Amino acid sequence: MVVEHTVKAFDEDITRLRGLIAEMGGLAEVAIQEAMQALVTGDEELAAAVVKRDKKLDKLESEVDELAVRVIALRAPMADDLREIIAALKIAGVVERIGDYAKNIAKRVGRIEGRHRFEPLTLLPAMGEVAAEMVHDVLTSFAARDPVMAREVIRTDDKVDAFYDSIFRNLVSHMVENPATISSAAQLLFIARNIERIGDHATNVAEMVHYAATGQYPPDEHDGRD
Amino acid sequence: MVVEHTVKAFDEDITRLRGLIAEMGGLAEVAIQEAMQALVTGDEELAAAVVKRDKKLDKLESEVDELAVRVIALRAPMADDLREIIAALKIAGVVERIGDYAKNIAKRVGRIEGRHRFEPLTLLPAMGEVAAEMVHDVLTSFAARDPVMAREVIRTDDKVDAFYDSIFRNLVSHMVENPATISSAAQLLFIARNIERIGDHATNVAEMVHYAATGQYPPDEHDGRD
């Protein structure tokens, strides 16, 4: 009975750990979407809300750290379970950082003048949507221990990179032709770079999920990275 | 006496953990430098050596994971010490990924034709040097628990970003003017992006070092990110 009790308590801990990671993923996804919405509509109040809500992600990361440490210390988990707990610790760190990029995008919303003049303002939300989907899918793959889905996410990063290249070229041409708008264009460039980094970090999480689920890193099928 | 013995064993574990992280940092730094050297000289043997040596980083990351787990489970460390161990776990994950980028650069060395025609081949090594220095400095800051140095690293990332933008523009112009070289130019673009990501990940580590040393994330002084 004691063993059974311990196993049950352990399962509850793991479920709670997964729940916290899922919650972090949900918050990060919404942060990306709302930051992009604030950017497109110029809604500075929404942008401020995104910045404010980022603290919640920091708090959740600390909760994941604490719970993971407690599980390791009290339950002495073996092989597969331990690999999942370590993955949770590392994934929480990366998702917190994804939230930072969304916050950074939100902070730039108020610094863009004459937003209707920029063509990338139609491309950026599409790029943000793909990145937000990557974050969503990679955390679903973690919850489901699904390495195939994790590899899908890794492949999707190529799309984000293609968006970035296209937006970069477009903005550079725009700067050359309209030197007066350089400072706003630079803000958009930083925003595109933040989204590109979100995609890269989601890819990073996907590799961790693959490793936690299979004990192996995914094969090198993604040309942009590895 | 028992307590003293435990404290000593704990200090030894922490020292060993720091040593492993320092070793990972050293390997990652050399991997970046040698990948860039292989790129500039077209030395495919050196490039292959860089690719092969990356396995060592994966192995060291596993060692960090194992040791960190053992310390948490056996020594039940408190507050500051626990924060450092969690930081070590997360930092090991990021440094392993920095190694992946260096490996990815090395893999591209053999795919570039007519290397003397590309102006970025003079800029890329300088960019790689700054990124390798960031990796070196951020791991020194971890070993020394030096948050001021960690913030220096965060600021240096602006230089890497500026290199990236300059190289990107240069390569795009080159592609437009010399369509026959597009495929080699694209390889150089991926290489520049990998270095940019190394800088971003070193920045990420710097934030973790700052947090581990002070319990707080660094203030938002770095415009490119947060």
Automatic annotation (TrEMBL), chains A, B:
Recite the lineage of the species. Answer: Bacteria, Pseudomonadati, Pseudomonadota, Alphaproteobacteria, Sphingomonadales
Q: Which InterPro entries does this one have?
A: PhoU, PhoU-like_sf, PhoU_dom
Coiled coil residues, start to end: none
- Official protein name in the record: Phosphate-specific transport system accessory protein PhoU
What is one cellular component GO term in this UniProt entry?
A: cytoplasm
A GO BP term, please?
Answer: phosphate ion transport
Per the database record, which ranges form the PhoU domain?
Answer: 21-109, 126-209
Gene3D superfamilies membership = Phosphate transport system protein phou homolog 2, domain 2
> Which subcellular locations apply to this protein?
Cytoplasm
> What does the subunit comment say?
Homodimer.
Asked if Cytoplasm is a keyword of the record, the answer is yes
Report the superkingdom from the record: Bacteria
Q: Which organism is it from?
A: Croceibacterium salegens
**Function summary:** Plays a role in the regulation of phosphate uptake.
Stated family: Belongs to the PhoU family.
PANTHER family for the chain: PHOSPHATE-SPECIFIC TRANSPORT SYSTEM ACCESSORY PROTEIN PHOU
- Keyword Cytoplasm listed: yes
Gene expressing this chain: phoU
Record keywords, A-Z: Cytoplasm, Phosphate transport, Transport
